Amino acid sequence: MRDDCELPSPVFVTGIRVSPFDSYSHAVRTISSRINAGLKTFCVAINPHKAWKARADRDLYATLNGADMHICDGIGIALAARLLLGKRIPRCTGVQLFFDLLKEAAERRWKVFLLGASPESSELACSNLLRMYPHLRIVDYAHGYFEDSSAIITQINESQADLLFVAMGSPKQEFWMAENRSRINALFCMGIGGTLDVVSGKARWAPNWVRRLGLEWAYRTIRRPHRLFPRVVTGVLFTFRTLIQLIIQAFR
Ligand code: UDP
User: How many domains does the chain have?
Assistant: First the structure.
């Protein structure tokens, strides 16, 4: 395999793989080289909520660790890597990588398929993205409330998409991609959670200063407390366990 197609060797943060990319452009360059070389890449975004849940859920653990590429999406993961392993892993959030990849896709004329969100949100997101990136080739899209996966996979393959973004929330999107990746021809696929709702305007992206502080999770929780409160709880548990592990390490 060519060097530029190599994914960085994973670092294990509380047992979950994380790919230490130096920057967003490093991640985009690697994905681009892999697409040009015809290599398939299944990318998952790792945050404390998923890392915590994966400890008790063997299927989620296997799905996350079985992916090819693991971006350091949550600030809690970057902090745990720093505290427990002494490694600086720059954050690479799923939302920002999605936008960076669309920019690259528009330049390179890659074909994009968007799967997920409600019918209205997915349609609106597509038209907004075409306004943002006039040269983007969204070859097709489908909402995320389908019954028949086989029909959706046929639709994806018939579109001849190079990139597939799946916005069905976690862990549903990760399970769906892992189960169907061998039948999907798109070379790159990645889960993007609620990103299409942000693009459609149904949800708001955290302001820049909130993102710089790594506090998107707090922003989203304040806006949707019922849905996101459990994530705060698991985030706190994850942080607590990281600190305990740190204390144990210090006394060893
Ligand atoms: N969704 C979907 N199919 C489903 C369940 C959810 O397409 O069966 C969509 C939902 O409409 C929303 C997104 O998945 O657009 C989930 O957004 P959320 O912010 O909850 O995801 P997260 O980023 O927190 O995983």
Answer: 1
